[in-house]
Design brief:
It contains twelve helices and nine strands. With about 325 residues, it is α/β, with parallel strands linked by helices. The strands form two sheets. Strands 3-2-1-4-5-6-9 form a seven-stranded parallel beta sheet, with helices on both faces. A two-stranded parallel sheet has the order 7-8.
């Protein structure tokens, strides 16, 4: 029994040393420079500050000079804010030139594509311009930024980390645009990983669950604005379901994980000797990953609807406003 206990302790110690060895940054200083987009607040800010504390030179992408000054107050002089709008080609090109000039012929150790937004609302009434904007930021913008910085990443034998989401593994009602953009980012990450393998540029994706950030609160507020602007007919159809989804969102926010947990996964992806292709962060994200892999679609979606407390039958049907010959069309809840 004692021998087994000693063996178990030795095995645990070896695992601990291996984790510490894999998580140790390879080198520091100007030669170990990274770009983090969407660094004004939330996950991006947490990643930028964590990397700065580890000795990396961090080029933190922000949208305004005010955001730049606020971030600088929290960081060391190694953190360099750069104005970067991922939907603006000129802004991306200017940011890439700024980084290249600062590196003085050196390369990048990493790019963290974190910038993103969340568009919410019933797809039936969603303005197509909002859908396009969702993809411009969360999909096209990520590709455009990657293209701009790949020469520096190739020069620096760097790595790419894309910020996905648990909604990139399992779609949710009323988050269709956001989920679709994160599903697309999963595919783009896999394709890019295979395309860049010849240059030994690892490409990882981080899949967080719900994270406690001000961005989460703003996304919920934006969704409420979208709902308020819906036509009267849409309110008649979707108000009960939207109200249930809002109550579910309140509960999710209360149990959200800290942004620093996501930053830890990003650090591992940038510094480990063998970075993972995917990092699932948070209990809810791990549960979603298992559901998406092992539970049939119909059952999985039923569980989601039940957990969110969505009504099983639309309000119009309850009020007898739907003709009998069209009732099958309304059995959506």
């Amino acid at each position: 029994m004692r021998a087994n206990s000693v063996d178990s302790h030795a095995t645990g110690a070896r695992r601990h040393r291996r984790r510490r060895r894999e998580a140790r940054p390879l080198a520091y200083g100007m030669k170990r420079a990274v770009v983090v987009t969407g660094a004004s607040r939330g996950i991006g800010e947490a990643c930028a500050l964590r990397l700065d504390s580890l000795g990396f030179t961090v080029f933190a992408g922000v949208r305004t000079a005010t955001d730049a000054r606020a971030l600088q107050l929290k960081a060391s002089p190694r953190l360099i804010p750069i104005l970067l709008d991922v939907t603006d080609g000129d802004s991306i090109a200017s940011a890439a030139r700024t980084v290249a000039d600062s590196l003085q012929g050196g390369g990048l150790a990493g790019l963290v594509n974190n910038a993103g937004i969340a568009v919410a609302g019933p797809l039936e009434f969603l303005a197509t311009d909002m859908l396009r904007h969702q993809f411009e930021v969360n999909v096209v913008g990520q590709v455009a930024v990657t293209q701009a910085f790949l020469p520096l990443l190739r020069k620096g034998k760097g790595r790419i980390v894309n910020m996905g989401s648990k909604e990139g593994r399992l779609a949710m009602p009323f988050l269709g645009p956001y989920c679709a953009s994160k599903f697309a980012l999963e595919a783009l990450t896999d394709s890019l990983r295979m395309e860049l393998r010849a240059w030994d540029i690892p490409v990882s994706i981080v899949e967080p669950g719900t994270v406690a950030t001000s961005i989460l609160e703003r996304s919920i507020a934006a969704a409420e604005d979208t709902v308020r602007d819906l036509p009267e007919h849409a309110h008649e159809l979707y108000d009960p379901a939207i109200a249930a989804a809002r109550r579910a969102a309140d509960g999710i926010v209360a149990s959200a994980a800290p942004a620093d947990a996501v930053a830890g996964a990003v650090v591992h992806a940038l510094t480990a000797r063998r970075p993972k292709s995917r990092y699932v962060v948070g209990r809810d994200a791990r549960l979603v990953s298992l559901m998406a892999r092992f539970i049939p679609d119909t059952l999985c979606q039923s569980l989601v609807l039940r957990q969110m407390g969505l009504p099983r039958q639309c309000a119009q049907l309850d009020k007898g406003k739907v003709p009998v010959n069209r009732r099958m069309e309304c059995k959506c809840w």
